[in-house]
Amino acid sequence: MDNMQNHESCAHASGAGAATGVASASAAQGLYNALFMDHVNHPDWCFEMTDASISHTGVNPSCGDELVFYLKINDQGIIEEASYQGHGCAISQASADMMSDCIIDKSADEARALCGLFGRMIRAELTSEDDIQDLSDASLLKDISHMPARVKCAELAWNTLQEMLTPKTKA
Question: Would the pTM of this model clear 0.85, i.e. be above it?
């Protein structure tokens, strides 16, 4: 699969946003490093997947970030490809790109487990590097736990994936 897709459908902003206080300002400075900005400015997975097995829209109503997440799942239940399209702040867009990297070649159960791990990390319930190593580049977002107004931005893609992969119960 050629990841040199047209990324015009992924609008992103840059900058630290409304971080306040010493802890938030320090967290924002640590967050906006070269690897983070590479996910923002050169996303690998920001494109519409026309042959997706499933897609789902996620919205953060508090700030207007929105994305459509796409998955291609093979007959064995393994995620072969992931992509997204949307608009929002740098944090929401980078998080979606990092998550896409993280879930390829995982089963739905493994991907849901990673969503739970990310949620615990972003709420500062897990802080050890050993605990969060499975999140790969997404572990860069751990300091967002010091920026409460930005947690929902970071969680948007992960919550959208969790909703996609959670079996629906029939009424």
Answer: no
